[in-house]
Amino acid sequence: MTTPPTASPAPQTHKPQTMAERILSRRGNGTFYAGMLAVVEVDQVMVVDSIAQSFIERMERDLESVPKYPERVSIVIDHVAPASTVSVAQAQKEAREYAAKTGVRLFDVGRGICHQVLMEEGLARPGWIVLGSDSHSTTYGAVAAFGSGMGATDIALAAASGKTWLRVPESVKVTLTGELTAGVGAKDVALEMIARLGADGATYQSVEIHAGDRFTRGERMTLANLCVEAGAKAGLVVPGGEILTMYDVPEWVYPQEGATYVRELDIDLTALRPRMSAPSEVDNVHDVAELRGLKVDQVFIGTCTNGRLEDLHAAADVLRGQRVDPTTRLLVIPASSEVMEAAMADGTLLTLIQAGAVLGTPGCGPCMGRHQGVLAPGEVCVSTSNRNFIGRMGDKDAKIYLASPAVAAATAIKGRIALPEDIGAQ
Ligand SMILES: CC(C)[C@H](C(=O)O)[C@@H](O)C(=O)O
Ligand code: SF4
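Above: inputs. Below: predicted complex with iron/sulfur cluster.
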C-alpha cells in the first residue's frame, strides 16, 4: 500500500496553538501549526452504507488489505435503511458480510444515523481523531474530537494503516456572547454562523466555537454539524457545560491564549431571532418572520442536525394538543433507536402522533432524497436538516427551507411557514 509521507519537522519555538493544532500535534508526531503536514493516529473510522461498496473495493482490490484495528472501524447502515431497491439491498448485504468477515462493528438498519450512533456508543471522545466517509463528520467536534469527512480512498487508507495524513487547517474563531432569548436555539445560532461565514467561507478551515458553558452535547452537535456547510474541515466546540460532566476532557484539547486565527467573529445571541435558510444555499439565511405565511407541503423533523430527543421535545412542546394542517404532511424520524426509545418512554412520540405526525425508521430518512418522503415538482418542504440544495430531497423544482424543530412544528400546524408564537407557543 501507499506509504504516508513524512510529516513536516517540528519548529524550534513553541507558539500558542488553536484547538485543531493542539489535537493534531498530540495525536501525531510533532508540534504542528496551520499549513504543516501532519501524520496522525486515527481513533475511529466510520463508513456509511452508501459508500460501503467502494470502501470494500478499495480495501480488498486496491490495497489488498484488512482493517489494522477492526475495533476502530464502524459501518453504519443509515442513509437508505431499510433498503429501497434491490441494488441497495445487495450493497447492504455485502457490507454485513464484510463486517462479519473482518470483525469491524456494524450498526444495522434502524440503529440510527451514523453521527448520532457513534456519539451514543462512545466512539467519538475528546481529543480523538474520527474520520467518516460522510461530510457531516465534523459533528464529532461537539465533544472536541477532530472529526472530518473524507472519500472512500482516504477512509480505506486510514482503516488499513490506522493513520491518516492531512494539512493542518487554519482556524476561524467564533465566539458566542450574550444569552439566547425564548424560542431561539442552537439551530438558529448554527444558521447565523453559516450566514456570517458564507457557504465557502471556511473552506478547509477549522471552525473553533467558543460557547462557554452554553449548550448540551446535542446542541453542540448541531453547531459542529453545520460547520461543513461553510466548507470547514472540522468544527470544534471548546468543551464546557455538560461535556465536562460527560467526558474526561484532557487539557491538551483546549486552544491556547494567543493562538493564530485567520478570522474571528462574534455572534451576539441576545439579538438573534429564529432563523431560516431559504432555497437553495444554506447561507441564504433570513429571519423566519420575513418568510412567514409561505404554503408548505411537507415538514420533516429529524436528521443528524436535529433528530435528537431534545429536538423532538421542542417539536412536541409546540404540537401538544394541536393538529397538523390537513394539507401538510409532518414526518418525524428520530436520529437513532436510542432517541426513539426515549421519546417513546416519555410520551413524546404519542404527542407527535396524536398531532398527526408520521413516524419513520431511525436513520437519514428523506434528507438526501433517496426514500421515505421525497418531494414532487413544485412542492415546498420545511426541514430541520442541513442542506437545501436544488434536488436534494427529490425533484429539482421542489424547494427546501431549513429551520429549528420548534419552527418546523409551528409550520406543520399552520401549513405555512410560522413561528411558535403564531400558534400561542413560545
Ligand atoms: C451519502 C453521504 C456520503 C453524504 C455526505 O457526505 O454528507 C450524505 O450524508 C449527505 O448528507 O449528503
Ligand atoms: S441525516 Fe442527512 S446530512 Fe445527516 S448523514 Fe444522513 S443524509 Fe447526511
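The radius of gyration is 21 Å.
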